[in-house]
Amino acid sequence: MARKRDKLKQLTTGWAGRTLATGRMAASLGKAAADKVVRQREAGEGLGSDLVADLDAMKGLAMKVGQMVSYLDGSLPAETQRVLRKLQQGSQPMAFETLEPVLVAALGAPVAERFDHLDPEPVAAASIGQVHRGIIDGHDVAVKIQYPGVQQTFAVDLGTFGRVGRLAAFGTALDVRSLVAELKERLDEECDYEREARAQHLFRQLYADDPRTIVPSVIPTHCAPTVLTSSWEEGMSFYDFVEQSSEAQRTEVAERVFRFAFRNIFHHGVLHGDPHPGNLRIRDEGVVFLDYGCVRFFEPGHVEAWKALAWCTLEGRRADLPEVTAATGFVPDPDRYDWDAHWEVMQYLYEPFTQPRFTYTHDYVRRSYDLMSMNNPNWRRTAMPPAWLLTNRLQWGLNSILALLGVEADFATFYRECLSMDYVPAELPEHL
After folding, report:
1. CA-wise closest residue to 235 among 283, 201, 270, 277
2. Which listed residue, of 159, 337, 394, 398, carries a Cα 20 to 30 Å from 278's Cα?
3. Per residue in 97-110, pLDDT tens?
């Protein structure tokens, strides 16, 4: 039976409490995987509810993992994943009386002096903060308030992740310490809402000439390191859209989401690294893209290496594969690498971009996991340069979203157009 809890008064921040909760979740995930084998629908739903309760209460990194599991094609039963979708908006918010002091301290005045109205009931309770709807000078706004203590939970969870990761990566080419350091740096950035406000403002400028790609405007007077206030943007949730839309409408959204991801990278050298369905709103005039906390800026050499590898694969230049792959940093020892096997993997991963028309499916996404895991003969010989860490999250997240949309489109043309764009690097503004 699913567990019900009152609104959170505080987060579990200590090592012992979070480790105990992690153990419960690991046991639940194991049961969920077993139940998929025997296809127990009710068990899958119940386990999903238990996982939601634990992950939602922990917030932070644990909840982020749950959000990813909720839409990435993997080993969990479909029923469990459907229940886990609640994590994309959150079902266990923090009590407003706990967050109100954060808001008052950040904005330097009582709530009634800074807002015409602020609803104490949140519209979303995410991994780092929750969103409340408000009114400023007659305009509807979304106010994201950070959970007190959430940055402390990242330090605890990353310590656990690092210890487990070093054991799991033993005998491979992975440098877990550098990957944990990369993840810590990105999570620290996500906890800085002033940085997120500047990133969101940048994206709004980048798409100022594209009325069908909608980025909420930032309200600078109501932003601080722990508070971010933006224009309120109406729109249909992703899953409601999938259920109610026509194929033509889903195809248009698939193209817009796809182009958004790769134009950002190849044209501007910036990655929007949190593509889960809860960060999308769809309306007649376009797609609203939310949440700019996880934004990674790349050095020019990173983008150049990615483009070179992409063109090598698209143009079928097998002989150039070792050289262009070496430039990415993925292969510490080229002489021990199975380049024929790697070429087969690249052909599969780039299949959507080499076919006249392609449909992303759940089977395609799951197969890509297999090719990048222990079933790959190069698995133990492949490194993961830190700059590429969030790229995998984007790739599998984007592919899973496109599989949920389930439409046939000319992704090859979209990808090549983005790849051919001149490189004009975007820079995070120092001030709003």
Report:
1. 283
2. 159
3. 999 999 999 999 99
